[in-house]
């Protein structure tokens, strides 16, 4: 069985908002502690008046006698709410950063593999160019040796030069 309990307070304007709201919170908490197990659902009209009526008066007197404490409590609750909002915002930012970090990790892995491929291709090109360079040097050396032999053979026919 579902039941609904409504709490209401009427206060003069000079009391402000914090004291009546604090009173309602205290009454609600106390009522739920005492009757939250189901006693309130089976209670008849005004049957809890004798038992809970004096508690209402105690809560009202406390709120009237300790407005500075209630104001401090309201300020602390407001600060907690503000901190909670900031923390939720920070958590959202961290989650966004986490997603961005994952993207950066993926991109860096991709760049690393591309760098390895580039290095391999660079090594192949360097070897190929070295071989091409050596071929040209060997061809030039062969031509120079051939020219020297031609010159020596033309100056000294039959190897009789002395």
UniProtKB/TrEMBL annotation:
GO biological-process terms attached to the record? protein transport; vesicle-mediated transport
Which SUPFAM superfamilies would you find in this protein's record? SNARE fusion complex, SNARE-like
Q: Which residues form the Longin domain?
A: 5-56
User: What is the annotated signal peptide range for this record?
Assistant: none
Q: Could you confirm whether the keyword Isomerase appears in this record?
A: no
Q: Which residues cross the membrane?
A: 136-155
Domain of life from the UniProt record? Eukaryota
Q: InterPro entries in the record, alphabetically?
A: Longin-like_dom_sf, Longin_dom, Synaptobrevin-like, Synaptobrevin-like_transport, V_SNARE_CC
Q: Where in the cell is it found?
A: Cell membrane; Early endosome membrane
Checking Pfam families in the record gives:
Longin, Synaptobrevin
Q: Which residues form the V-SNARE coiled-coil homology domain?
A: 72-132
Per UniProt, which keywords does this protein have?
Answer: Cell membrane, Coiled coil, Endosome, Membrane, Protein transport, Transmembrane, Transmembrane helix, Transport
Q: How the protein sits in the membrane?
A: Single-pass type IV membrane protein
A cellular component term from Gene Ontology for this protein is:
early endosome membrane
Task: Give the family, as the similarity comment puts it.
Answer: Belongs to the synaptobrevin family.
The record describes the protein's role as: Involved in the targeting and/or fusion of transport vesicles to their target membrane.
The protein's name is: Vesicle-associated membrane 726
Top-level taxonomy: Eukaryota, Viridiplantae, Streptophyta, Embryophyta, Tracheophyta
């Amino acid at each position: 069985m579902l039941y609904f309990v409504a709490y209401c307070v009427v206060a003069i304007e000079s009391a402000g908002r914090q004291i009546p709201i604090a009173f309602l919170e205290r009454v609600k908490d106390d009522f739920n502690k005492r009757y939250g197990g189901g006693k309130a659902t089976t209670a008849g009209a005004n049957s809890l008046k004798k038992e809970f009526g004096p508690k209402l008066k105690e809560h009202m007197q406390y709120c009237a006698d300790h407005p500075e404490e209630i104001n401090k409590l309201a300020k602390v609750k407001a600060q907690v709410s503000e901190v909670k909002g900031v923390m939720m915002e920070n958590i959202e930012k961290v989650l966004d950063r986490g997603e961005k970090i994952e993207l950066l990790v993926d991109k860096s892995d991709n760049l690393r593999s591309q760098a390895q491929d580039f290095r391999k291709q660079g090594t192949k090109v360097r070897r190929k160019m070295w071989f091409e360079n050596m071929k040209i040097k060997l061809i030039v050396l062969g031509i120079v040796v051939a020219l020297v032999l031609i010159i020596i053979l033309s100056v000294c026919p039959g190897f009789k030069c002395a």
